[in-house]
Amino acid sequence: MKAYLYVGIGGAVGSLLRYFVSFITLYFFGNAFPYGTVAVNLLGAFLLGWFTSHILYQTNPSLATGIGTGMIGSFTTLSTLSVDVLFLWENDAIMALLLYVTISMIGGLFFAYAGLKIGQKQVDS
Hints:
The chain is mostly helical. The chain has one domain (about 1-125). It is about 85% helix and about 0% strand. The protein has 5 helices and no strands. It has helices spanning about 1-30, 35-55, 60-75, 80-90, 95-125. Helix 2 runs antiparallel to helix 3 and helix 4 (about 80-90) packs antiparallel against helix 5 (about 95-125). The longest helix is centred in the C-terminal third of the chain and has 31 residues, at about 95-125. Fluoride-specific ion channel. Important for reducing fluoride concentration in the cell, thus reducing its toxicity. It is found in: Cell membrane. It is a multi-pass membrane protein.
């Protein structure tokens, strides 16, 4: 039961952080490109990679679920990425769409890998 509570609290924190990052990027960069979604997904990929290798095995399993599934899971967003892609498609912004998908996919893998490796180095040292 404790895990459910941690997931709920983590989910609330992650969604608020996502809203904050999206609001800040919208304010500074406008809405011509989905900068906020790119930012939260790349940062989330890094954090989940780091968390998986560095923290997961050193903390309470319920807390780990709350952070990984709850907070980071609600911080990142595949559904918004999907809607952004459709929006760019419908507005004939094909180059922006291709750039967005490329950054999201390749960047996400890179950031997750970087987080994983940095976390492993911290554990090993």
